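Q: Protein A?
A:
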Amino acid sequence: MSAAEIHPAAVQSTLVPELVVGFDLDMTLIDSRPGIKAVWDLLAAETGVAIDTELVVSRLGPPLVWEMANWFPLEQVDAMVARYRELYPTYAITGADPLPGVAETLAAVRRLHGRTVVVSAKYTPSVKLHLDHLGLDVDEPVGDLHGAEKGIALREHSAGIYVGDHVADIDGARAAGAVAVSVATGPFTADELKAYGADVVLNDLTEFPAWLEDYVLEQRLDALMTSLTEHRKLLVAFSGGADSAFLLAAAARAIGPANVVAATAVSPSLPLAELEPAAAFADSLGVRHVTPPTHEMEREGYQANAGDRCYFCKAELVETLQPIADDFGIEAIATGTNADDAVAGFRPGIRAAHERGAITPLRDARLTKAEIREASRRWGLVTFDKPAAACLSSRIAYGIRITPRLLARVDRAEQVVRDHLTSYGVQNVRVRDLGDKASIEIDAGLLATVDAATLEELVRAEGFEAAAVDPRGFRSGAMNERLANPERYR
């Protein structure tokens, strides 16, 4: 495979199973009682049978055929079920509403790169109609399963968590070996659900995102620390950013600081302001810090600055660090690649490092950027809120040949902008070299409060003929937007 082929590394994590969360539907995700009652009222009117529809909707959960048998002779049940299902799409779907916290719950799973599956006793086509009507972002709808039978679908989809409102949902979670999370929004109280054996009981789904994020973070941190203890010694490629700083701290905790070496590569692409804080951080951990020079500028593929520039940079880094690791008797070189990087879709550098044997403990533990920052905060690391600081070459538009002069100019321009905005509490500053002009990106929240003309003048004074503040504000990977949509940025 050539370096010019741009795609993320295809290696998947084996340390932590993929996050898959299963949900019941009725009274867990949606309040379907008004619509269901309307259908039962129609059945009562059509048949003349006195059905206590309020009682029916107070005990949702078991299969429809069970409830139907409470009101009709056995020989009529199948026909009544069929009629109910005929009426359901017209009268029940629009009567259902999402329960509080549903949108936030599904979004929380997505943020953690997880998948969702709905496993319900409801007729499968009806499950799909409800989800589609309410626009609920669910990966897989499954119906016609109740109680322990739900474990079949949960196992099939590798769900590690199942959320429901009924004691039968706890049976389903148990059958799948999943964590049973109960919400007290259905026919059972929190005490009843707890007494039946739920692992976690919540009042409703508004409490679920916080629980999930904390639970998953603990699982992933445990996996990270376990994986790190498998190494007698470790060399960490330490840029000084939040990710590699957290990895360095985790390694020091797991195997002891004397067994960890931090290596910060020094080259024209490293912002000068990064080196001293990196050294201080490593010293605070009691970790040895080395600063080998790297020579990516001597690689034609790097200078050419095509879309695969990062491949050549990371290749140079790992190839430079390997002899250092050998000298220290270290068998593994670790990078701070995280789970978000792995799904970004444009990371040729990840592949270069993988091809050269570097390991990615954070990604393998499925730790996201947000989780790394939260764990860093809990550990008291000063880098927990450090702004992203990609290498200076990422500021040069693809196709413009990289030179030390261009990198130094960008570094100076960013520093003067940052210094000017210190009193504003600026976090993120980027000066992008677009060839014919500079694009200045700052935190979007500051755009309305700063004088753009002053920033543009400061940047021009550092050697740019023209400069303009980007009205969209700072965003990581802005240069990749130009690569993906070249016509838009001509």
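Q: Protein B?
A:
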Amino acid sequence: MTTKCIGIYGASGFGKEVLPLVRQLIHKDKSKIEIVFIDDNESVQKLSGLAVLPYQVFKEKYEEKSVVIAIANSQVREKIAAKLEGDGISQLAVCADNNIIMDDVEIDQGSLLCPFVTLTSNIKIGKSFHANIYSYVAHDCVIGDYVTFAPRVMCNGNIHIEDHAYIGTGAIIKQGTPDKPLVIGSGAIVGMGAVVTKDVPPNTVVVGNPAKPLKK
């Protein structure tokens, strides 16, 4: 019988956190599924008792395979996603058992929702969204592709977050309105603990309370 395999791309601390979520995912599957880490740093061969394989070895070794990308850097995530698509390898969406997902929530492929994440109502989320522990997205939000939430991000209602934005640990984003959503621009970075009260332009780093652009 052919062994199925799930590869966790990223042999790192975050990869170790993702491992139990993958185990939850396959718990009810009665077929034999192997889990490995994927990393092209050949100095690491074992992590959490599992093999660490270079991508090329993983690709050639298993017939039935899929991948979870456990890398916070959104640009790297996008490159890996493109590589997987080119090689015909599917991305898995991973969702902790204790997540709360309410009503009318759309999520594109490759999402990774860590424990205690809440998504409420009328939410649209793009590709490869990462939400770390205790984060939430409230009503009427639109989130682009390759957006990353660190732990405890508070994304309140009527907020639009564009592609490749990074929201730091404990950041609070003030609620917008239906006629004027608060917008976090493409590639913007919201610093740890920042309180965002107004729009953040693309490719801008904001910090503090209230959040202001970081001076170069």
